[in-house]
Amino acid sequence: MRLQIPIFPLGTVLYPGGRLPLRIFEPRYVAMTRRCLAEDAVFGVSLILDGQEVGAPAVPHAVGCSARIVDSTVLEADMFALLAIGESAFRIQRRETQADGLILAEVEWLAGPAPMPVPSEYAPLVQLLRQAVEQMGEGELVPPLRYNDSAWVARRLAERLPMPVAARQRILECADPLQQLSVVAGALAALGAGSGRAG
């Protein structure tokens, strides 16, 4: 099933089940926010492939994640503070740019990875995530917490580790939960924190 949604190119990667705080002030995104709130509609978040977050429309990566606004505060007449939650991954099939600079895209929804228990070799990654949650508090995560779901663990770690955005994007695009964990483990190794694998 395909649907046309507005696209918000950002310098970060949003995953299903992830939290995304935003401050909205550009007119095109203020109008988008108002429409999404009025219609309880989603918008798409895609990592910037070329360009900047502010100013001329950036070129987004083809694979992104839909976001639904769950909390909003009007800071000024044309400024919002939002909290959005990632819902579903998508692939842009075609896109167009409105006169105001807002990108509209026809997207194809991507099936999420099936739940898969975390293999014992990746148990240190689960422990690392648990430690991070203890420090920041469970309120920073969207329930339910699924420590034995490989994709969930990989995505939550990718949100919090100082990983290159290219690696984060690979995790979003990858349908194999074990490959997602492998990308996280590789990023940890590159950071000098060990591979995250037992043995």
Task: Provide the descriptors you would attach to this structure in a database record.
199 residues, alpha+beta, Archaeosine Trna-guanine Transglycosylase, Chain: A, domain 4, LON domain-like fold, 2 domains, five-stranded mixed beta barrel, 31% helix, disordered C terminus
Oligomer: single chain
The radius of gyration computed from the alpha-carbon positions, rounded to a whole number of angstroms, is 17 Å
Low-confidence stretches are 193-199
Overall helicity:
25-40%
Separation of the first and last Cα atoms:
44 Å
What are the SSEs and their pairings?
Layout: E1 2-10, E2 19-24, H1 27-39, E3 43-50, E4 59-60, E5 63-76, E6 79-97, E7 103-109, H2 123-136, H3 150-160, H4 165-173, H5 177-190
Parallel strand pairs: 1-3
Antiparallel strand pairs: 1-7, 2-6, 3-4, 3-5, 5-6, 6-7
Describe it.
With 199 residues, the chain is an alpha+beta fold. The chain folds into two domains: 2-109, Archaeosine Trna-guanine Transglycosylase, Chain: A, domain 4 (Roll), CATH 2.30.130.40; 120-190, LON domain-like fold (Orthogonal Bundle), CATH 1.10.4060. Helix content is 31%, strand content 33%. It is built from five helices and seven strands, in the order E-E-H-E-E-E-E-E-H-H-H-H. The chain has helices at residues 27-39, 123-136, 150-160, 165-173, 177-190; strands spanning 2-10, 19-24, 43-50, 59-60, 63-76, 79-97, 103-109. A five-stranded mixed barrel has the order 1-3-5-6-7. Strand 3 (43-50) and strand 4 (59-60) form a beta hairpin. The chain starts with a strand and ends in a 9-residue tail after the last helix.
